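Take a protein:
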Amino acid sequence: MHRKFRKILIFVKTATMKNEAFKDKVVVVTGGAQGIGHCIAQEFEKNGARVYIIDKQEGPHYVGDISRREVLEAFTRHVVSREGHIDILVNNALPIMKGLDECTWDDFQYAMSVGVTAPFYLTKLMAPHFAQGASIVNISSSRDRMSQPQTESYTAAKGGIAALTHALAVSLAGKARVNSISPGWIDTAYTVYEGPDATQQPAGRVGNPLDIAHMVMFLCSEKAGFITGENICIDGGMTRQMIYHGDNGWALG
């Protein structure tokens, strides 16, 4: 009886410590109104953080198009005027995906503005206000290393932010740690897939937003204090799997 009670006390203490890790931390999430970004914001809020979201979708958050310089500047002033500092920045906003056949000059420029320029400029604006031990997590994609046809705008933006990550990590050495995550197939509706969609992936399932949010939380914690400039691919092992026609049951349709 006594042993069982002691175990419960240990569990409660551990859970409390987890919640305290991000208590009152100031967290900024771009593209946080839905999908992966929304999940990340929710997880930080559950752990006691004060979260600021910017998204072009209407809602109770700060509404704005991060492809515009003046929006990034105004948003930074908005956060700093209320908090005075920033502990965590998550660059998550999604660039458009258009390919070689249909992507115009303006489309490509917009994708780069959202996917690369905005994370760079927002980091630059917020850098003077980063608290000690600050952390930045950039959301890239497994498409930073592999592609489907007609995905050039998205792929270029995701490749750009992955490279930007290690450059910022070096420039911000001693001020903030900077890492990136490259998600694979993440179903934002938490659909549970069966059959080939699931089994083609070495992990045996399709991912969900929590798979990414949990890694963001880890990278922003003291447990990841010796990790910076890294890109972590969370894709159920898909990019590690070699596929050849006629091999291991695979066939080109």
